[in-house]
Amino acid sequence: MKAAVDRADDGESISRLLRAWRGRVDARTVRELRGIFPRPGRRLSQAHVARMTGVSEGWYRALEAGRRQDFSERFLLRVAEALRLSEAETLTLFLAVSGRRPPEAGRDRTDLPRGVQTLLHQQVTYPAYLSDGAWNVVAANALMGEWFPWVLRPRPNLMRWALLEPEAREQMLDWEDACARVYLAMLRVAANSNPGNAELRALVQEILDSDADCRRIWAEEHDVVEHRDGHDFRLRLPYHGHAEVRVTSHVLLPIQRTDLRFVFITPADGWAGVPR
């Protein structure tokens, strides 16, 4: 009978990868190890990596052995730095160990991939926009600005507009069931998925502090919604002469910036035009 393959020895194991990444670093070139005794040779040991990342050797050994622990984001970033990991290797480490992507540290909110910007602005048939993890609208095409002029205001935020602005309750029909309950359920998922996001926590608190209807819905509902892809909703906008239209939202994640949402809005049920 053929022996089962040990996951620690296969080519996909994070244990195997960590050992390989550690093995390619010459300990003699590591500044943090200069002057320690005994003087390190070429091989970077687990003890060396533990010293470089500020943890015990046993804690780092648990990571390299593939044992599940509560490894913090900060610790994993220190490991990536110590082992001189590339962006793709750091992504692999985070996904394998925590199931999360590494933080988008230091990235300018306006630093958008050129292809994504081009696709956004070449979309001239339907409204489209990009939002970040806290639903700040970071870019929008011209038609989005015509349908929803609020995106042209300083620091536009979808949740803040939809849940707090009086005009949203007039323009989004069946506001409580089709809008507020869905958006609050999305905020609930996001807040629990990324508890360290201070901006997101502040947004949730601002909405609950500012509106009694949102507080009531938040307290009485326990629904969770990850995104609004494929959801239909009814609008009555000045752009359409206040006639009712039904549309569908579509949510995509740009591969270059998965911290962003690419959202575009199309007619529902084959509706082919807009009343003006």
Automatic annotation (TrEMBL):
InterPro entries: Cro/C1-type_HTH, Lambda_DNA-bd_dom_sf, MLTR_LBD. It holds the Pfam family HTH_31. Transmembrane segments: none annotated. Residues 42-91 form the HTH cro/C1-type domain. PROSITE patterns: HTH_CROC1. This is Helix-turn-helix transcriptional regulator.
